[in-house]
Amino acid sequence: MSATIEELEEYFNHVGIVVNDIQNFEFDNNISKIYSYQNTDSLIRYFNSVDYKSILFSSIDEIEYINELIDDSSIVVSKYNDRNYLTDKSEIDSIVDDNKFNSKLLLTTTTLDNGISIHDLDVESIIVDLYDPLIIKQAIGRLRIGKANQVLEIIIRNKSKGSVSSMIRKNREILDGVNTLRECEDLYFERYERVSHNHKRCIYPSKIDKDTTKMVINEIAVFKLKKDLEFLETVHKSIEDKTGDFASHIINYLNLEGINFENLERTFTMDSVDSILKKYEDMYLTMEEKKDLTRDLKPYVIPQKSRRTMSCFNLTYINSYLEQFNHKYTIDEDRVMLDGKRTRVWIVRKLEEIVLKNNRSW
To answer: What is the C-alpha separation between 54 and 47, in angstroms, rounded?
Structure first.
């Protein structure tokens, strides 16, 4: 495992070793705004609305998907990544030789190659779609500020309760494997058959002699795993209690609480969605009008990846979206008399008008 300075310092403190003069990376005062986002479509709209350069750190699957949707983008991943064939070699040369890249959007995974940093003066936003707060900090630190007036927007993917739960289960499973190996190596292989890809984070083979290999536990990695698990469990509880979310915990970890913080979906889609709903306000929407409305909402409400398989006619889904992002409207369903027949309709209502009507009813 390649440990960062902060991980080593924290581990040494944990085991009682005093280390002096460790320098921690601190952010410059150049961050102007922080956004959070949840779906990739909002990010695509953001990219299409700005004219400056951006860097996105995410999983290899996500960056490959986004690369197909954005014309002026390029992929650069570590030479050790299984899909390093996606790397734009000309961008690597530009980054190494000139400390900058040529495309509008640079797509990469967690850390690029060790030692690579970017000094591009035209970069004004960094997007992180990662789970580990320390890796997020490290990723943002890949950009070195080159001028006093260079301003940055930091965009953080806000992980859902379900995805945080999934990461908690994954980390607990790795920890169970470590504890089993501590108990007995034979028991470990009886239970797991082989060292899984996930377990390799903390467990690796070490040759004792030419005929003997012993499985070894990386204690620094285990310590880091426990810290990650503690962080994710705290995030999960705050999501359940509705006292916070993933993005707010990352902002707290980075000590960026005083910076202007907005929701990307709300900023780049709210006006568009509300203007669509305004066209249908207080109308009785029968089947044809429902189709028109859902067709108009589809690019905003349903993630692009799901559009072929998911129907937008699910009223619960649409209203959940509207509520999640604090839109001004909701859609009710009712039966009314139309042309002498009782007909099931949708009615788009403005929330403040609903409140006024409810108040009058008292």
So the answer is: 8
Tokens 């359940």 appear where?
A: 240
CA distance 292 to 298: 10
pTM: 0.74
Q: Using CA atoms, how far apart are residues 1 and 332, in angstroms rounded to an integer?
A: 54
Tokens linked to 112: 């690029």
pLDDT digits (tens, 9 = 90+) for 35-66: 999 888 888 888 888 889 999 999 999 999 99
Answer yes or no: are the C-beta atoms of 128 and 253 closer than 8 Å: no
pLDDT digits (tens, 9 = 90+) for 166-209: 999 999 999 999 999 999 999 998 888 777 788 988 998 888 88
Q: In what order do the strands lie in the sheet with 329-338?
A: 284-285, 341-350, 329-338
Alpha-carbon distances of 21 from 9, 18, 89, 141, rounded to whole Å = 10, 10, 38, 20
Instruction: Check: CB of residue 260 under 8 Å from CB of residue 32.
Output: yes
What's the burial of 20, exposed, middle or buried (CB within 10 Å: 0-12/13-18/19+)? exposed
Of 88, 46, 39, the residue nearest 62 (C-alpha): 39
How far apart are alpha carbons 160 and 140 in whole angstroms?
Answer: 22
Distance of CA 190 to the CA centre of its chain: 36
- pLDDT tens digits, 272-320: 888 899 999 999 999 999 989 988 888 777 766 665 555 555 788 889 8
Spatial separation of the C-alpha atoms in residues 134 and 204, rounded to whole Å: 23
Dihedral (CA of 284, 289, 291, 296) sign? negative
Tokens of 63: 């960056």
Greatest extent of the chain over all pairs of C-alpha atoms, in Å: 90
What is the CA 98 to chain-centroid distance, rounded? 29
